[in-house]
Amino acid sequence: MSEKLYTVGKIVNTHGIRGELKIVPQTDFPEERFAKGSQLLFVEEEKNIRIPVTVASSRYHKGMYVVLFQGFTNINEVEKYKGWLLKVEEKYLGDLEEDEFYHHEILGCKVVTDEGQELGTITEILSPGANDVWVVKPKSGKELLLPYIDEVVLDVDVEQKLVTVHIIEGLLD
Fold first, then answer.
1. pLDDT tens for each residue of 24-78
2. Average pLDDT for residues 126-143, to the nearest whole number?
3. Per-residue DSSP letters for the chain?
4. Given Cys at both, which of 35, 63, 136, 145 links 120, Cβ 3.0 to 4.6 Å?
């Protein structure tokens, strides 16, 4: 059985002539994922092609990461990977602190209040600033925005896919 893969970015273009690629990050931990020595995969999903690669260097530039992978030194060697995804194998996901979670663990969780009211399912995670905001889609009506702060999120059970929250004043208005 093949290892589960998680998307960490999309290859959108080449950068310069020395084989660097521009990557739009799609990961909770870009500094870690694009660090020198990080083991990733170029993935072309339609043809199911996977090419193991190792980060040689990377830098953040205008909302993207410019990454050079070991073994590639020329624009002609990397041009064909434009549009491919960059993925990481599950075994390379690091252990997290107690109240840290990977996005894939949170998405799809059912949200209930500490009074037992079901609010909906987490469909998206926004990162607007100081804290993440979890978008909750109820069975009907408009989406709720829950700030990921201690006063609101009381418990996250990733095994049961259940999040318990406390509704503070003004949250549901």
1. 988 878 888 899 999 999 999 888 899 999 999 999 998 899 999 999 999 999 9
2. 84
3. -PPPEEEEEEEEEEETTTTEEEEEE-SS-HHHHTSTT-EEEEEETTTTEEEEEEEEEEEEETTEEEEEETT--SHHHHGGGTT-EEEEEGGGPPP--TT---HHHHTT-EEEETTS-EEEEEEEEE--SSS-EEEEE-SSS--EEEE-STTTEEEEETTTTEEEE---TTS--
4. 136
pLDDT of 126 reads: 82
Q: What angle do CA 148, 150, 151 make, to 5 degrees?
A: 100
The tokens describing 132, both together, are 């993440």
- pTM score of the predicted model: 0.61
Backbone conformation region of residue 139, classed left if phi is above 0, alpha if psi is from -120 to 50, else beta: alpha
